[in-house]
Amino acid sequence: MGPAELAPRELRILVAVAETGGFSAAAVRLGLTQSAVSHSVRGSEAKLGAVLFERGRAGASPTPAGERAAALARRILRLYEALGSEVRAAAAGGGADRDALQGVLRIAAFRSAALHLLPPALERLAARYPGIRPEVRVVRELGAGTAGEVAAGRADLAIATLDADGSGLPPGLLSGVLVQEAYALVHPAGHADPRSLPLLDWDENCGSYTRAWWRAQDWIPCATVKAEDDGMVLTMVGRGLGMAIMPELSLREADGSVDITDLGPSRPVRRVGYVTAPESAATAAVRALIRELRSVQA
After folding, report:
1. pLDDT tens by residue, 105-140
2. Which of 99, 170, 177, 191 sits at 20 to 30 Å (Cα–Cα) from 277?
3. CATH, range 99-179+272-297
């Protein structure tokens, strides 16, 4: 075995220490002794030639090298988990057998995508491959966002907002556009002059795909209220507390308490798509989900 080759057991220990924040807690999770965990981590550090954890009284926190090692370890371990299903799918003719694909499929999505994009695709996926068990987590599109969950090995596929040039993704990931949705002005129903109202907003809104348009609009004030998410903003608009500029996915929950006004041909557009890692993109389960996501948007 080469100096940088870690066995699956060593990878699991690295992930457990990174996620629990200590050797003792990792030992409890894995059913090992603390000394076995500590010995394994020291061995992994020697093989990789880097310090992976800062040790202290409060536990063990990953160094930047440790964060990267844990992310790659999660992704490698996912391939081990998928091995049996992938082989059976290949034996069945590339996954044509509905019973060939089995196992957990981990998905990260921001709120409105989890509500409106994923369900019809997952319904079709379940009908075709009942052995696949989707696990969906809602992740806010702040910081690393949903794509960061893929990079860290915590998700096999993410539904994410995509910059036009792909510059916002962590390096090495793959992506594809599923839908392009226009922004619109939403305001209390029947209001005579909605542009005079205070602006309501939320932290995930106004990404790089809308900032230039936003800056060019002299009628848009600074946000008076910032809410937790787009659903809360829509509710507050319906209560007459202000107006908002929101993408189409968020407005699928609109009711008769609000009116929606087109912002014209120069309106901003948000690109929403999938993000996955190259090794996950090669698996039959992820390919099947991407097909269903594309199919329901066609």
Report:
1. 999 999 999 999 999 999 999 999 999 999 999 999
2. 99
3. 3.40.190.10
